[in-house]
Amino acid sequence: MLNEWKPEIINKSKPYYQALADALESDIKSGILKPGEKLPPQRELADQINVNLSTVTRAFRLCELKGLIYGVVGRGTFVSADAKVSLSLNSQDDDLNIIEMGQALPLYCLDKDTGDMAKTMLQEMDLEMLIRYANPAGHLHHRAVGAEWLKKFNMEASADEILIMPGSQSALANCMLTLFSPGDRIAVDSITYPGIKSLAGLHGIRLVPIEMTEEGMSPQGLLNSCKNDGIKGIYLMPEFQNPTTRSMTPACRQAIADIIKKYNLLLIEDDAYAFTGNLSNIPVSAYAPEQGIYIGGTAKILGAGFRISFAKVPEAYRASMEKGILNTSWMASPITAELVTRLIKSGKADTILNNKREEARIRNSLAKKYLSEYDVASRDCGFFQWLLLPDKWQGRELELTLHQAGVQVFCAEKFVVGSSRFPSAIRISLSGPDTLEELERGLITIKGLLQKGYQDQTIIL
Fold first, then answer.
1. Is 330 left (phi over 0), alpha (psi -120 to 50) or beta?
2. Which is nearest to 365 in space by CA: 380, 346, 376, 350?
3. Could you tell me which residues are beta bridge partners of residue 210?
4. Degrees, nearest 5: CA angle 147-151-152
5. Which of the 8 DSSP states describes residue 270?
């Protein structure tokens, strides 16, 4: 617990609350204030530096919106666990010698056939029509195909309920922009997809971490938060959750849906990796159809260039989200939507999906060969694994050490929300390496470092 922190105000030309927020941010980034440490009570700090309580409250609010600190009702304010960690899952590493096992890529090794199919389809398309502006919701025949596609993942929808979005990240951003206001609170898994953390920060939305069990988000934890934290919405990845690989049981899905309906929560269900999990599971949105926005993307299946997402949106939210599309991207690309829907209608999308599941199965078997002696969470067809670290290793330290050894992975700190406790762990992408040979080299490097055991590192964290 840290109660003696005293800020050093540098820029005195700014309003004091902004200068105080700058000092707090500076001390967090420099390491004076460490992740997880408790800040002085606001009233105590205000008395110490001789300012009004409202000044401290405004400064803390600015830093909270940046994700630097996190308040817990009844416990105080803490430095966020991920305050010094980049949330980006795009490695953007220019070093060609680095084996990419951080980003969960769409298995580029299988995309050549998809590209060849697209070339043929482009020659058959009515491009004159497709290069015109379309309804923000998308062409009706594309929406009809999208509704049929979602049935593959047990999400019943009509064409009228579908919005064509330029990718799942765009759909998530649209939800934040149009359905929530700054200061609103959204419940999320305590370890979750960093993209939702970044979007929440951009829109001034507060994420409330809910503890997880082996079955997924804790219904009791969500219930407690609904009673105490003023929750407006909930974000879930119930099938092959990123990064833990957990899939919610049917009983857990029903329990969570019951709470959503009881408290009239707005559910955002991101099913980005549903195709790598159990295809028989029912989405949570199906249990709460009036509150659930279901987002089914195609980029991970068909390829990164096919950034189309079919969003099943209840009537109560549809007009707002259409307006959001119109005022941000105007529409998803009709040409891309046409390519995606042709791949679906021809049955080729099914073939691509099955091929990627099989390739992922092979890669998981290879990973098991090298990592079987460690505590690894995985699924047969998953694109990544969640490795709990042995000995004294911390996730961020191992990420940096592995990078020096030529392998990129992502540490648990990227995924943690607020001041939540989190395991020493890394997420290992199996879909990042271009070939099985490259994947094997990466796995050998990871295993070798783990077998060597923890040693005092000289890396500056």
1. left
2. 380
3. 189
4. 125
5. E
Angle at 368 between CA 365 and CA 373, to 5 degrees: 165
How many beta carbons lie within 10 A of that of residue 306, not counting itself? 23
Q: CA-based Rg of the chain, rounded to a whole angstrom?
A: 23
For residues 7 and 19, what is the distance between their CA atoms, to the nearest angstrom? Answer: 10
Q: Tell which residue, 146, 170, 113, has the closest CA to residue 325.
A: 170
Cβ neighbours of residue 40 closer than 8 Å, sequence gap 6 or more: 2, 3, 4, 5, 48
Q: How much is the pLDDT for 77?
A: 82
Tokens 């922009």 correspond to what residue?
177
| pLDDT tens by residue, 395-436 | 888 998 999 999 999 999 899 998 777 889 999 999 999 999
Q: Look up residue 308 and give its two tokens.
A: 């189309």
* Tokens standing for residue 339: 């390519």
Cα 222 to chain centroid distance, Å, stands at: 19
Enumerate long-range contacts of 96-100, CB under 8 Å, 24 or more apart: 97/406, 98/403, 98/406, 98/407, 98/408, 99/406, 99/407, 99/408, 99/432, 99/433, 99/438, 99/439, 99/441, 99/442, 99/445, 100/408, 100/429, 100/432, 100/433
The predicted-structure confidence for 339-362, as pLDDT tens digits, reads as follows: 999 999 999 999 999 999 999 999
- CA 51 distance to own-chain centroid: 39
Predicted local distance difference test score (pLDDT) of residue 456? 57
Q: Which helix (H) or strand (E) holds 9?
A: none
The pTM score is 0.83
- pLDDT score of 459 more than 70: no
